[in-house]
Design a protein that fits this description.
globular, 4 strands, 4 helices, four-stranded parallel sheet, alpha/beta, 136 residues
């Protein structure tokens, strides 16, 4: 099974879901990408490590880099990605699922408040990933 996780900048939410899907579906090939690349967010790496998932080796990629991969699922995790994602030949027959998660990279306040926002989004994404894995 080939799964593509899409977000705007492939730095945070898509990276978290990528990490959890790899953990919960070890035989699947999971890719994550964005309509832009913003680099891997260090706070996303931090909060995933807190939950035992290492995404520090992930890279921020453009969706077009995976145009030829035959995807079974394309999962969008923000409205912007769903609305602006380029049409990928490999995803033409993929089942497309959408869930818009809050963007913790937009959180403001103290460092503790920002990290709390990352943890809250991480928790929502983990539940989504567990449900996705359970039903596949």
């Amino acid at each position: 099974m080939n799964i593509l996780v899409l977000c705007t900048g492939n730095s945070c939410r898509s990276q978290m879901l990528h990490g959890y899907l790899q953990q919960f579906l070890p035989t699947a090939r999971v890719y994550s990408a964005g309509v832009e690349t913003h680099g891997l967010n260090p706070r996303a790496v931090q909060v995933m490590a807190e939950d035992g998932v290492d995404i520090s080796w992930h890279t921020s990629n453009l969706a077009t880099e995976y145009a030829a991969v035959p995807f079974d699922y394309v999962l969008t995790v923000c409205d912007h990605a769903r609305e602006t994602c380029p049409i990928l030949p490999g995803a033409a027959t993929a089942q497309q699922l959408h869930h818009s998660f809050p963007d913790p990279a937009q959180a403001t306040g103290s460092e503790q408040e920002v990290i709390t926002a990352f943890r809250e989004t991480r928790s929502q994404i983990k539940i989504y990933a567990q449900e996705f894995a359970r039903t596949r």
